[in-house]
């Protein structure tokens, strides 16, 4: 059985979640590897949430937000734009492939683009293989447990 | 140099230019941070290698300077600061954790022995009154070795080192820039209670991400670690990332805030 | 305005790490490790780092408490001591245990174990550091 990546996607409510929804209502098919989590804004996504996902079973994390200039909260996606490159450097410094986190701007009308992004990401993660730290949170390496 | 430093500080106090001076004092052979309020007390002023001046009081989460400033308004305080002390002061002032009003920095540059032992990025304050600025880099060879490691080697490296952690929170408690009342390193959602070693790598990931734009490279974290985890290496790498991405270095410019401090759009200098 | 660094030894376990109690104008404001201590060498465990907090904790008891009707209620020292003495006298040695504390002095801990072993005739005495 070949590797099927598990991808957690944080989708902003106003643009990208709606875009993904459009893909669904338009009956566009895309692989079932994505677990969508709706957030009110991509700026809500903290690097800690991303790492949390990566250590609790995710092979990769996709973050989608509104295009720059279109954020429903005006400045939210500016924060995402600053954070994700730093987050990737953090992953890289720990030895986790930074390509396992991807930031894409997807608008509410871009159902097809959402599908494209997802399919491309899945292909890339299949090539990278399973995430070496995906089980870290549940690892029973604990020396002591209270 | 110590005699000249003491004489200068005595002059500042005697001439009533300052109410008190904060620096390291000799206490039966140990070097402890203290306030000097009289000229005679300054005979005990010392400069020592590893003892840092700025720290956060617990459980109030207030740093020591803010504590005294809160008690006495209009306080004129001198601080005998080395490079790392001054950087911590500047960062804390930018983060509204203390005021630089009424604060006069008596800058002391580190000598070669200290600079080589400590290996920080800038072993001198902006304007040292004592000591010579050593402009060369004192890079830690460990950083260069680390940068050459591939991903697999890095992961194994950190799994080994971070796996030694006993979750003493010494790194967090010793850090002059850590003062959050609700520290995310204590949050059950990210870090399970009662599990040792702490969940890899979230426990240390919180610290390195949250300090990326405020670490002043003082080394207090690594000095406090009982398990000899190369924490400073992680921080140095993140500081380098912030420098590369945003052309920003914490503690250097007291007027320039972190790119993460406000909601303004700040474009990265390199592509993602 | 005086900050004192009072050298002390962590009360929690037998390692005896050296630390400085940060005292500012008579108030305990924090703890710092003692850099040149031979046993601890400038390090502390999580208990040591927070060794000062119990002193000014708002959770500290201010009066004895007696459980009545399932609820802990304030009582006088007289009431409390008499109740404890009465219950201890009534119990057989094997049905008594005592738990002492790192926040007590060595002398107080010594007295506790002497009371339990010599007076009550029980071996069941322990200390919070073992938890």
Descriptive account of the structure:
- The complex is a heterotrimer of chains A (146), B (272) and C (131).
- Chain A is of the alpha/beta class.
- Chain A has one domain: Rossmann fold.
- Chain A is built from four helices and five strands.
- Chain A has a four-stranded parallel β-sheet with strand order 2-1-3-4, with helices on both faces.
- Chain A is globular, with a radius of gyration of 16 Å.
- Chain A starts with 6 loop residues before the first strand and ends with a strand.
- Chain B has helices at 2-14, 64-71, 83-94, 112-118, 141-147, 151-162, 170-174, 202-211, 220-224, 231-246, and strands at residues 20-27, 30-36, 45-46, 56-57, 62-63, 77-81, 103-107, 195-196.
- In chain B, strands 1, 2, 3, 6 and 7 form a five-stranded mixed β-sheet that branches.
- Chain C has helices at residues 46-49, 77-90, 106-119; strands spanning 3-9, 18-24, 27-33, 65-68, 71-74, 98-100, 125-127.
- Chain C is built from three helices and seven strands.
- Chain C folds into two domains: 3-49, Single Sheet (N-terminal domain of TfIIb), CATH 2.20.25; 65-130, no CATH class.
- In chain C, the strands form three sheets. Chain C has a three-stranded antiparallel β-sheet with strand order 1-2-3, with no helix packed on it.
- Chains in contact: A-B, B-C.
- At the A-B interface, helix 2, helix 3 and strand 5 of A face helix 6, strand 8, helix 8 and helix 10 of B.
- Strand 5 of chain A pairs antiparallel with strand 8 of chain B, so a sheet runs across the interface.
Low-confidence stretches of chain A: none
What's the total helix number of chain A? 4
Question: How would a crystallographer describe the biggest sheet of chain C?
Answer: 3 strands, antiparallel
The first-to-last residue Cα distance of chain C is 40 Å
Number of DSSP helices of chain C? Answer: 3
Average pLDDT taken over every residue of chain A: 93
Average the pLDDT over all residues of chain C and give the rounded result: 92
Structural class of chain C: alpha+beta
Order of helices and strands of chain C: EEEHEEHEHE
CATH topology of chain A: Rossmann fold
Largest interface: A-B, 37 and 45 residues
Morphology call of chain C = globular
The share of residues in extended strands of chain C comes to: 25-35%
Spatial arrangement of strands, main beta sheet of chain A: 2-1-3-4
Rounded to the nearest angstrom, the radius of gyration of chain C is 19 Å
Alpha-carbon distance between the termini of chain A? 38 Å
Helix content of chain A: 25-40%
């Amino acid at each position: 059985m070949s590797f099927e990546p598990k991808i957690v996607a944080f989708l902003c409510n106003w643009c990208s979640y709606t875009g993904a929804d459009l893909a669904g209502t338009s009956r566009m098919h895309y692989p079932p590897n994505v677990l969508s989590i709706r957030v009110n804004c991509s700026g809500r996504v903290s690097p800690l949430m991303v790492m949390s996902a990566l250590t609790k079973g995710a092979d990769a994390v996709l973050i989608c937000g509104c295009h720059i200039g279109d954020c429903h909260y005006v400045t939210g996606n500016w924060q995402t734009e600053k954070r994700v490159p730093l987050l990737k450097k953090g992953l890289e410094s720990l030895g986790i492939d930074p390509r396992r986190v991807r930031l894409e701007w997807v608008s509410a009308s871009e159902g097809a683009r959402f599908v494209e992004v997802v399919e491309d990401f899945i292909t890339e993660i299949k090539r990278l293989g399973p995430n070496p730290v995906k089980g870290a949170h549940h690892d029973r390496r604990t020396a002591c447990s209270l | 140099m110590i005699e000249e430093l003491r004489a200068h500080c005595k002059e500042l106090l005697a001439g009533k230019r300052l109410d008190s001076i904060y620096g390291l004092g000799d206490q039966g052979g140990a070097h402890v941070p203290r306030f000097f309020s009289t000229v005679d007390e300054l005979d005990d002023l010392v400069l020592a290698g590893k003892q840092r001046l700025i720290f956060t009081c617990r459980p109030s989460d207030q740093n020591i300077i803010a504590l005294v400033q809160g008690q006495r308004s209009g306080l004129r305080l001198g601080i005998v600061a080395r490079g790392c002390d001054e950087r911590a002061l500047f960062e804390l002032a930018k983060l509204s954790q203390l005021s630089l009003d009424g604060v006069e920095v008596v800058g002391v540059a580190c000598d070669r022995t200290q600079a080589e032992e400590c290996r920080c990025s800038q072993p001198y304050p902006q304007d040292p009154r004592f000591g010579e600025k050593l402009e060369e880099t004192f890079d830690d060879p460990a950083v260069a070795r680390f940068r050459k490691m591939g991903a697999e080697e890095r992961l194994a490296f950190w799994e080994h080192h971070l796996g030694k952690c006993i979750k003493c929170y010494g790194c967090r408690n010793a850090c002059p820039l850590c003062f959050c009342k609700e520290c995310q390193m204590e949050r059950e959602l990210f870090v399970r209670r009662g599990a040792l070693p702490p969940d890899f790598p979230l426990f240390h990931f919180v610290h390195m991400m949250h300090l990326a734009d405020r670490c002043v490279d003082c080394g207090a974290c690594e000095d406090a670690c009982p398990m000899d985890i190369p924490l400073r290496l992680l921080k140095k790498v993140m500081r380098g990332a912030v420098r590369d991405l945003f052309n920003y270095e914490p503690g250097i410019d007291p007027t320039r805030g972190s790119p993460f401090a406000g909601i303004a759009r700040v474009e990265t200098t390199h592509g993602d | 305005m005086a900050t004192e660094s009072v050298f002390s030894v962590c009360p929690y376990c037998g390692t005896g790490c050296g630390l400085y109690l940060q005292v500012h104008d008579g108030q305990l404001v924090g703890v710092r490790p003692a850099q040149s201590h031979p046993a601890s060498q400038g390090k502390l465990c999580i208990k040591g780092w927070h060794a000062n907090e119990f002193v000014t904790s708002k959770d500290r008891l201010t009066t004895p408490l007696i459980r009545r009707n399932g609820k802990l209620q304030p009582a006088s020292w007289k009431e409390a001591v008499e109740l404890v003495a009465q219950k201890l006298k009534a119990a057989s040695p094997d049905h008594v245990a005592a738990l002492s504390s790192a926040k007590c002095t060595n002398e107080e801990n010594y007295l506790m174990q002497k009371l339990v072993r010599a007076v009550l005739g029980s071996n069941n005495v322990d200390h919070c550091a073992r938890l």
